[in-house]
Amino acid sequence: MACRISELVVEAADAEGLAAFWSEVLGYVELCREDDGSIEIGPPGVGFGEPLPVLVLSPSEDPRPARTRLRMNVTAADRDQDAELERLLALGATPVDVGRAGEGRRYVLADPEGNEFRLLPARPRTLPVAAVRR
């Protein structure tokens, strides 16, 4: 069996605030808090070791201000991309850049601490035949 991602850890100046932001964005809930102030969030009813990864927001007095090498991409699950963009901006995301015009537009946003993420257009749920035959 291959490895899979079990958790993503994000250093944060305000772990509480960032956990609240990403919980709203992803529909996650707080799963646990550690003695060091880390907050683990994930899908309701899911915990560490389950198929879906959880996010751990870890307090840090020196979160790296430079561009991060790991970025999250999100796709609207139950609404169109424009409606999801409005929701993310209302939650506190800020626009950084808008990629490709027309269909397939990608929005680069930043969470309340400046971590960039992309709002991608919805993708078809079926895989192309070539991808299935790999």
Class of secondary structure makeup: alpha/beta
Low-pLDDT parts are none
Mean pLDDT: 81
Query: What spatial order of strands do you see in the largest sheet?
Result: 1-4-3-2
Q: How many β-strand runs?
A: 8
CATH topology of the largest domain: glyoxalase-related enzyme like fold
Radius of gyration: 16 Å
Share of helix, binned: 10-25%
- Inertia-based shape: globular
Q: Kindly, what is the distance between the CA atoms of the first and last residues, rounded to a whole number of angstroms?
A: 17 Å
CATH architecture of the largest domain: 2-Layer Sandwich
Quaternary state of this entry equals single chain
* Run of helices and strands: EHEEEEHEEEH
The total count of helices amounts to 3
Overall number of domains: 2
Topology:
Elements: E1 7-12, H1 15-26, E2 29-33, E3 39-42, E4 54-59, E5 72-75, H2 81-91, E6 94-98, E7 107-110, E8 116-120, H3 129-132
Parallel strand pairs: 1-4, 5-8
Antiparallel strand pairs: 2-3, 3-4, 6-7, 7-8
